[in-house]
Specification:
about 375 residues; alpha/beta; Rossmann fold; 2 domains; six-stranded parallel beta sheet; about 15% strand; binds uridine-diphosphate-N-acetylglucosamine
Length: about 375
Amino acid sequence: MSLKVANIVGARPNLMKIAPIIREMRRFPQVEPVLVHTGQHYDDNMSDVFFRELGIPVPGYNLEVGSGTHTWQTAQVMLALEPLLLELCPDCVLVVGDVNSTLAAALVAAKLHIPLAHVEAGLRNFDPTMPEEVNRKLTDVVSDYLFTTSRNANENLRREGIPEHKVFFVGNVMIDTLLRYHSRVDALQVSARYGVAPDNYAVLTLHRPSNVDALEGLTSIVDVLDVIQTRLPVLFPAHPRTYERLVQFNLLQRLKSMPEVKLLKPLGYLEFLSLMAHAQLVLTDSGGIQEETTVLGVPCLTLRENTERPVTISEGTNELVGTLPERIIGAVWKVLDEGGKTGRHPELWDGRAAERIVAILRENLGGAGE
Ligand code: UD1
C-alpha cells in the first residue's frame, strides 16, 4: 500500500521544518511526498534560497497567493488548495507551524475529510491577539495526528480536550535541520564578512506586528539599539515588513546613521545560522529563533511578554525581556558584564524528529513494513 502525503508550506519558517520531513519520506518507496507552496512568501530571500540551501525539492505546485490581509490570505489559500487536493486525492495532508497557510490548509483538509497531520502542535501563549495563536489552536482542533515538540505542548492539548491517542511527542524538526547543518556553517565565517569579530556582536530580528506596526513601539526599539550599539555591534537582517515600517515611520536614516548597527537584507539559512552561532547574544521576537539559540547555547533575549515555547526558558538560554527600553538594555548589559544564561538541549531535540513522524504516519496510514 502506498502513502501519498500533501505537504503544505507557505512562509519562511515552514521551510526548515519541512526539509527533514520530505527527506525522510523520500527514503521509502511506498511514500509519495507531494510538496505544495502556497506562495505566502515569494521573495528569493524569504523562500527560494531555503529550497536551494536545504535541498528541498522544487514544489510540485505553487498557489502564488502572495501578501494581503490575514483573512484575504487565508481565504485565497483555501480557494486555491481545495481543487488541487480534490485532484491529488492524498492519503494525508501535512502542515507545519502556525502561519496563515497552515490554518488555511488545515481547514481545507478537514472539510474534505482528508487525515490531517500538524507538526509543532500544542504550542500556546494564551494571547488571542497574536495571529499565530489563532492559527495554532484552530489547526490543532481539526488535526488527526498532532506532533509535539515538548511535553508541555501535550499538556496544553490535553487541557483543550484533544484525545490523547492523536498526540505524539516526537521532538523538533527545526532542530533536525539545525543539527544537520550546524557543523557546516563554521567555515563560512560570515561574521568577518560583516566586519564584526566572532562572539562580539548581537544579532537582532524583528517582525511581530505588535513590535513593528506602531510608530511608538518601533521608535522605542530603535532608541534602544542606539544605546546598545555603544557597547556591542548589532547585525540586523530586517524582515520585509519591518523594513517597510522603518521607511514609513522615517526611522531608516536614523538607524543607518548608527555606526555599529548594520542593517542587512533577510539572510539565507546557512548565513543566518552562522551569525547566530557566533553571536554573543541574540535579540528577537521570533519563535523559532528562541529554539535555535537554546540548542546553540547562545543567550536569547526575547522582545515579547510571553512565549509559546516555555521549554526554551525552563531548559534553554531564552529570557523574556518584553519591550520596555530599560529592561532590554539592562538585560543586554547583564549578559555583557556577567555572561548569559546557559542551558541544555530539551528532551528529544536530537535530530530525529522527522524520522519519528514519518514512522508514525507509515504505521497508521501507509501499511508500514511492506
Ligand atoms: C509570517 C507569519 C509569521 C512568521 C513570519 C516569518 C502569519 C500570520 N505570520 O509573517 O508567523 O513568523 O511569516 O517571516 O502567517 N513580504 C515580502 N516578501 C515576501 C513575503 C512578505 O515583501 O516574500 C512582505 C509583504 O509586504 C507582506 C509582509 O511582508 O505584506 C508580511 O508578510 P506576511 O506573510 O503577511 O506575514 P509575515 O509578517 O511575514
